[in-house]
Amino acid sequence: MRSVLRRFVLVVAAVVLAAVIGVAAFAPYVAVEAYAFSSYQTVFGTPKPGAGADARVRWFGVYYAVERLDDRTYAIGEPRYYQGNYSYLILGERRAILFDSGPGIRDIKPVVEALTDLPVTVAASHLHFDHVGNMDRFERAAMLDLPDLRGGVDRGGVFKFGRYEHLGFIDGIEPPKVRVTDWWAPGQKIDLGGRTVEVLQTPGHTPYDAMLYDEEGGQLFTGDLIYPTTLLADIPGSSRGAYLDSTNDLLDRVPPDTELFAGHAAFTKTPRTPRLAVSDLSDLRKTLEGARDGSLEAEGIFPRTYQVNDRIWLETGFPWHNR
Question: Rounded to two decimals, what is the model's pTM?
């Protein structure tokens, strides 16, 4: 009887140990699956149009907040959506780019059409659901010209988002059916007519992160690599090592006076375009180096959270997730 009980205890212990190892090994995947059953997804009812609105911001209906950054650039915010997404309409003389398009719970196309009558190509900073939701509403859609992404196009010309590329199951959002018309190579310069933007590949948050850089205008549109709240390097496909490499590349590439426009804003009573500076990139590099070297202490076990500065935090996974 004792030998049977001993074997039973050993089997249970082995199963528990295997489960713990499995959860630890696949923690980013377990975490995002758990989000779908949590209160993570919440659409807030505030701020309301006109309530403490910045003079530079005007509301489009009751959902979108639009700020004219200059004569050729608009920020289109979704402050009533819990992730505070921001997309950017970048205008030239002949055509325009919509960089990111939100989760698609509201149609962004009427906003774009109210701001310009130029032909618009929509592009995404990465493939997560909260940045690609309206890509199928535009005639032209661009993606990074990478073998993995080209391989995701089916015979009908539609890009097939992977479960952990899109993550829409977190909010119950289905992937859009995007027909890719333009493949932009890393380093390619896109001529909009009197204005040129460069496509930068900046993996870290995901393997397929991209930014748009207007060198002449001193503007960098950053997507989710950096923004003024909590950065995620603890999800499927993220890499703290790639994060550091991309941050180093950017600091070598852009002048200190470059203005950064990010993909998410922190919650405030007043809708506000998420602006950052190159100094924030420098702070992020120091944090990533400190996390790598062990000279900085993190809060928590998973995720491990580091404070970058007074506006930015960084979440990372276990060491084996930080390749």
Answer: 0.90
